[in-house]
Amino acid sequence: MKPRVSLQDSALRNGNFSLRIVPVRSEDVGLYEAQVKYRTEVHSCRVELGVITVTLNPPNPVIESELLLMSCNSSHQASLVETCWFHEEHLGPISRTFCSLSGTLSILHPAMSDVGSWRCQLRYSDKEIISATFNLQILGFDGPTNPVVYAAAGSAAD
Question: Ig-like domain location, by residue (predicted)?
């Protein structure tokens, strides 16, 4: 797994034996065991790593007004009950939350207002809730609604 895996050498002296994996891949799923020997003592711990994957079709960056499919899947073994998508964690009367039984969200005409942080939340039959956040980028025009721009003679116009 090198060079994606590292130990924080400075933290080892303080008893922190954390393993860091950057970036995490789907094939990293599984059981990890740490074993620390100090003099005659042996300490160990086990951690199971699950992975959640967010895929875009077409891939990021998306072109404005082209059909976008966002999928969210995880390595969790229980039955998927519901998938919810949250955009920018909007609060207030306008909700940007979409829930479905499948893990896929379709946006027929993505616009510049869809740019930004999206979070998918997977809820399973064993009451487990797993989520992942990613940043959606869209290539498009985010200019004035009126296509006529006036500028003073001798000045700059953008």
Answer: 50-131
What are the tens digits of pLDDT across the range 15-35?
788 888 999 999 999 999 988
Strand 52-57 with 80-87, pairing: unpaired
Determine, yes or no, domain membership for 152. no
Hey, which residues does 57 pair with through a beta bridge? 69
Give residue 74's domain range.
52-139
Say what the pTM is. Answer: 0.72
Q: Is residue 1 a contact partner of residue 28, using CB atoms and an 8 Å limit?
A: yes
Largest Cα–Cα distance in the chain?
Answer: 83
Same domain, 130 and 64: yes
In this structure, the number of other CB atoms found within 10 A of the CB of residue 96 comes to 15
Q: In whole angstroms, what is the distance from residue 120 CA to residue 53 CA?
A: 10
Position 120 in a domain: yes
The H or E element containing residue 9 is helix 9-12
Instruction: Look at the chain and report how many structural domains it folds into.
Output: 2
